[in-house]
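From the pipeline queue, job 12 of 40. The input is one protein chain; the requested action is below.

Action: predict structure.
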Amino acid sequence: MRCNTNNGSIENIINHSYNNLYLQPFLTSTTDSKSNKIINKIQYPLDYSFTSTPITQDFAKGIKLLQDKHIIVPVIEQLQTKQIGTATYITGGTLTEYHPDKPLPKTIWVLELENPILDTESNFIKSKIDANNNFVYDANYKPRISFDLYDTKGNLLQQRKTDDQPQSFIWGYNQTLPIAQAMNAEAKEIFHTSFETETFAGIQDNVNQAKTGSKYFEGSYTLTFAPPTTTKQYVVTYFKLVAGVWKYEKQTYTPNTVLSGTIDEIRIYPADALMTTSTYAPLIGKTSETDANGNTNYYVYDSFNRLQFIKDQDGNIVQKFEYKYAE
């Protein structure tokens, strides 16, 4: 890659090296016009060798599971180095730990360095499997984010940054689309329905009447969601149709609360959490998003199923999309 300037040209040379076994790039180097070289070194599951010794460490089990399932492209370690003259310095790195019982990420580890360090065996331990089948890595790697819980289709249900609040998700439409996410709440602490995929009595299907999506409920609806603890306060929010207008309601939640009338978009979550929810037209796109304060935006598509407008709950256009083709 060459960039011309008023003072001449600046040239960066990028080289990619591939492994002949699994045809993935294991090294990418970028050399600038001053001969400084930045190198990314990548290791994959097949770069780690195990012996017949039983594997007891979860980190190692995760890598072995990927190998056994022939999942070879996930990156286990990516190391960033910078070569100046004949010396190579490590500037950053990430490790991805996988669950021992499912081929899904468990923890992202980040290399925390105050300053770049010289790339030598005495300064840095490159990840490997030792003689006891344990995964060994440098002590400067620290956990940054954990992926705690998945559903049966491999969708993420709960994640958490180190020393931060949990973030949780609910998947709908046969576990294909995320219909709710909550900050500062665990997956077991939240509930949501907008009646889009339910089929029990009382559900009405009218896209022009529903608050979100195409369905809503008429009658008495009993909330049976059981919070995991009684020491925390929970709230339930929902929309209720009153005199032809959808009103946002919020109240303290207790199990077996009964909501009556014409209702839609029910959410239960801890009182100190924030929850947003969405509806979709499958194979087209998102049709609504309701934020933590109960404000709803609607997504409108043209006859080619392209996003055309985003409107607020009063019908005002907040964003417009135009598609033009080159002649």
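Job complete. DSSP finds one helix and 26 strands in the chain.
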